[in-house]
Write a structure and sequence with these properties.
alpha/beta, five-stranded antiparallel sheet, five-stranded parallel sheet, 32% helix, elongated
């Protein structure tokens, strides 16, 4: 069950709830932007960071629900002990939390959100002090945006059901293991290869999309998008270089290449002679993955996933 299913279940039974969302965070705050918690009179779902802060906010929500006080507002929490706007925690970060009451009158809105999720589509959820709106026709470049001028003038936007997209170029045994792992991590996985009738490509039932194309045209099939992740693991050096040379001047969140240090050193020397700058080459994660002495396809996939998760969550 996700947050929206839980909310739908409660308000369908005419049980009002408060949805708490971290809309902004700084420093070592335990709750990060997008963290959510749903508070009902008899139950809670999710977390915005835990600790005494969360306990106090849950009790505050339950008091408002008991008094039938349904007001949308934002609340800043500073984790530095007993100070104004202090949370009681001492981890030195801070976070701003949006409190949204949802009642049976919001059932159609929640149904629209659930419909988008169930159909694997996304949409833009927008909160202001006096309104809540969801549109499957709108989009923003980032998953979350928050602007705040004062307590009466603020806006929080969130892309619902936006998945991180990873392009896995090369569908051998490591590609298969990598696809499976990233699928389980909630990524939208696209597998690309230039070979037909490849057993590991055909056996890959975890990819959201699979395409067979000449690597000479790879740039036409991977959008120039700074939110995308690209891992290159073809079956030979020349194909790795061919793919990388087409993507190197573009904006992707992550580009990594599988291979030995010796092979990649030669590749980078050739690319530099072909006109690519040292800064461009330094932006490539090669050899890809954290150095955990991985050997098997799954171990290699785990090392790649660990590196990408670290970058994703920064």
């Amino acid at each position: 069950m996700n947050h929206w299913q839980f909310i739908h279940s409660k308000i369908s039974q005419k049980k009002p709830i408060y949805l708490l969302t971290v809309v902004q965070h700084k420093g070592s705050s335990p709750g990060r932007q997008g963290f959510k918690m749903v508070v009902a009179a008899d139950e809670i779902f999710g977390s915005i960071g835990g600790g005494i802060m969360e306990f106090n906010l849950v009790e505050h929500c339950r008091a408002m629900l008991g008094q039938q006080q349904y007001t949308m507002f934002v609340k800043r929490q500073i984790h530095k002990g007993s100070i104004r706007e202090g949370s009681g925690m001492i981890c030195s970060g801070e976070q701003t939390i949006l409190f949204v009451p949802l009642l049976s009158t919001n059932l159609d809105l929640i149904s629209d959100i659930l419909h988008a999720i169930e159909n694997d589509s996304s949409g833009l959820l927008t909160f202001t002090k006096n309104s809540i709106r969801f549109s499957s026709q709108e989009n923003i470049a980032t998953t979350y945006t928050y602007t705040h001028n004062n307590d009466d003038d603020w806006c929080y936007k969130e892309m619902v059901n936006r998945k991180d997209v990873i392009y896995i170029v090369g569908s051998g045994h490591v590609g298969l293991a990598t696809t499976k792992l990233f699928s389980e991590l909630g990524f939208y996985t696209v597998v690309v290869d230039n070979r037909t009738h490849l057993n590991t490509f055909e056996a890959n039932l975890y990819a959201d999309k699979k395409i067979v194309v000449p690597y000479e045209t790879i740039a036409q099939h991977i959008p120039n998008d700074e939110t995308n992740y690209v891992v290159i693991m073809t079956n030979k050096y020349t194909d790795d270089k061919l793919v990388l040379s087409q993507l190197l001047k573009r904006d992707h969140k992550f580009i990594g290449v599988l291979g030995s240090t010796a092979k990649l050193k030669v590749m980078f020397e050739v690319l530099k002679k072909e006109g690519f700058s040292q800064n461009q080459l330094d932006s490539i994660h090669a050899p890809i993955g954290l150095n955990i002495k991985s050997q098997t396809p799954l171990e290699i996939a785990i090392s790649i996933a660990s590196q990408i998760i670290e970058i994703k969550n920064q």
